[in-house]
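worker-3 :: picked VanZ-like domain-containing protein
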Amino acid sequence: MPFAYMILIWTLSSMPDNAVVELPDSAVDSFVKESLHLVEFAILYLLLVAALLTTGRFSFKLSLICAVIAAAYGLLDEIHQSFVPARSATVIDFVKDVTGVVVASYFVMRGYRKHGFERIMGYFR
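worker-3 :: C-alpha cells ->
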C-alpha cells in the first residue's frame, strides 16, 4: 500500500493543481490544497507503519525510519513539482509535509508506548 500511495502522489504531482478538482471559490480551493500537504505525507507515514505492523516488528527506531522515508519523499515530491509546468515547489510546502509526518508519528509513538499496539497488530496478522 505505501508504494501504491507513493505512485499516486507522484502521478498527481505530475498534473496541474486543478486537474483533478477545483473548488468554485479560489481562496477556499487554495486553502484546502495547501492544507492537504499536512495530511498527504502523514498518510504515507501511517501506511509505512501499517506495513511494518504486518511483519509484527515495530519499534521507535523503525518508526523514525518510516518518518524519515515519508519526509524524504515529501522533499522528492517538491523537487519533482519544480520541474512540472503549472506547479510550484516551496520550502514552506516541504515544512508542511514534514509537520504532518511529525504530528502523525507523535500520535503513533504515544499510542505504542501506552498500549504496544497489541489489538491493532492482531488485525494485521
